[in-house]
Amino acid sequence: MLNFSFFSNPEPLYRYLARLLCVAVYDPRYTGFEQLPEFGAAMLISNHVSYADGLVIAAGCRRPVRFVIDEEIYKLPVLHYLMVCNRAIPIAPTRESVTRALDEIAAGFEAGDLICIFPEGQLTYTGSLGRFKTGIESIIKRSPVPVYPIALIGLWGSIFSRKYIGSFRRYIPRLLSQPVHAICGAPIAPEQVSVNFLQKTVLRLKYQG
User: Fold this and answer.
1) What share of the chain is helix, strand, coil (3-state, %, to 5)?
2) Where are the alpha helices (DSSP H) in the chain?
3) Which residue among 13, 74, 126, 201 is least crowded, i.e. fewest CB within 10 A of its CB?
């Protein structure tokens, strides 16, 4: 008898493909990811280096991760289907979209989801850590869940980053199995959350790697 479980719950396949693609393109190493909770609501935050950041993070987690993602990217053909399967949360710079995204994030935490946010709000143009947006404080104030900081190291300069944007070097094939290190720090209690504290924590993890 044909098994239709994939159509009702495609998330396990999504995570499997994420790991497969991540290992095919990079040589990922994970530190501290074992401390992520197996159950219950929590937020992941990370520096935003490349379009593959979510792939790398998802491949290192033992449970589904929902990502808050730019609405334009969310709607791209093919990728849109994967984002729907992963229950990603689209967001655009409009009041209506932001309100809808914040409501969905709160509902996700209420349901016990693990949600990842990139507080810089955009990919880095320099490889350095950009200024975190203050909206993350409002999210945690509304839904006081633990926050796990993540630092991604080694993705700057890959074809999925903005290092060579506008340059022909962007299209030059690069060596596969590029070493990538993802470091997850200790959980931060909701009452400790502030933009400055979170930013300093992620920066410290970057230097640690």
Assistant:
1) 40, 20, 40
2) 5-8, 11-25, 53-60, 71-74, 79-85, 95-110, 135-142, 195-208
3) 126
Q: Residue 47: which residues within 8 A CB-CB, separation 6 or more? A: 118, 120, 124, 129, 150, 151, 152, 202, 206
Give the three-state DSSP class for 159: coil
Neighbour count for residue 72 (Cβ, 10 Å): 9
Number of domains in the chain: 1
The owner of tokens 């991760």 is 65
Q: Is 71 exposed, middle or buried (0-12, 13-18, 19+ CB in 10 A)?
A: middle
**Residue 160 neighbours by CB under 8 Å, 6+ apart:** 50, 51, 52
- In this prediction, residues 33-53 reach a mean pLDDT of 95
Task: Report the CATH number that the domain containing residue 163 is assigned in CATH.
Answer: 3.40.1130.10
Identify the residue with better confidence: 168 or 15.
Answer: 15
Q: In which domain, by residue range, is 129 found?
A: 5-208
Residue type, 134: T
Which two three-digit tokens encode residue 167?
């340059």
